[in-house]
Amino acid sequence: MSEQPIKGLVFDMDGLLFDSERVVQKSWNEVGRQMGFGERFGDHIYHTIGFNVVRREQYFKEHVSPDFPMEEFTENTRQIYHRIMEEDGVDRKPGAEELLKYAKEHGYRLALATSSRELHAQLLLKKYGLFDYFDGAVYGNMVSAGKPDPEIYLKACASIQVLPEFAIALEDAPSGIRSAAAAGMRPVMIPDLVEPGEAVLELVWRRFDTLYDVIDLLESDFQNS
Q1: How far is CA 54 from CA 61, 126, 135, 182, 198, in A?
Q2: Which InterPro entries does the record associate with it (predicted)?
Q3: Do β-strands 206-207 and 186-189 pair in parallel, antiparallel, or remain unpaired?
Q4: Is-contact 209 92, C-beta < 8 A?
Q5: Tens-binned pLDDT, residue by residue, of the chain (225 aa)
């Protein structure tokens, strides 16, 4: 039995479209030193990639301290993150705009499903010229349950009026792959900071090195095989 044709692409943002997870890690290291959490606090990002702020707070309270000062940490991190972004900028991931442009020109519906908050995500997308490619978007502050819950991907598919079985999800993080798979989509993984384990790979429909490979996928005749 042939697979359903692809009608929509749903993108994660941090670590997939932008090399921004490393900026987050750098800001966490700096804030961690300031707040007395040690030199390598940024290593916690390996366990929280894809989490929204609610899930990250739960993680910190479980693994750092039950009294973890999330509000103070978030504000300090935000200031340092924006300072680093202003000073150094952030790179778009290889093939990001090329894939968005190709998909748009070939009639695919495009949505964003990011754990980042709306204001931050829109500023980043607009600054680097990617915002207008998207037909729909769901941000971390718009869902009650973050990844790996399927809510964000189900809402993203609804935002572009494409059923999950007709859409692929583009992700760099294990939590995002689990979210997309639970939503009934075809998860495509382009790993960033974290390599997938065996359990995650079982959920992955395709695994690629860059977003350029997704263009090749769409150009192939796999839908008719």
Answers
A1: 11, 25, 26, 20, 27
A2: HAD-like_sf, HAD-SF_hydro_IA, HAD_2, HAD_sf, PGP-like_dom2
A3: parallel
A4: no
A5: 457 899 999 999 999 999 988 888 999 999 999 999 988 999 998 888 878 788 889 999 999 999 999 999 999 998 998 898 889 889 999 999 999 999 999 999 999 999 999 998 999 999 999 999 999 999 999 999 989 999 999 999 999 999 999 999 999 999 999 999 999 999 999 999 888 899 999 999 999 999 999 999 999 854 444
**CA gap 225, 223 in Å, rounded:** 6
Q: Are the C-beta atoms of residues 112 and 21 closer than 8 Å to each other?
A: no
Distance CA 42, CA 45 (A): 6
User: What is the spatial distance between Cα 197 and Cα 103, in angstroms, rounded to a whole number?
Assistant: 29
**H or E segment to which residue 175 belongs:** helix 174-182
What is the CB-side half-sphere exposure of residue 208 using CA atoms within 13 A? Answer: 19
Cis before 150? omega within 30: no
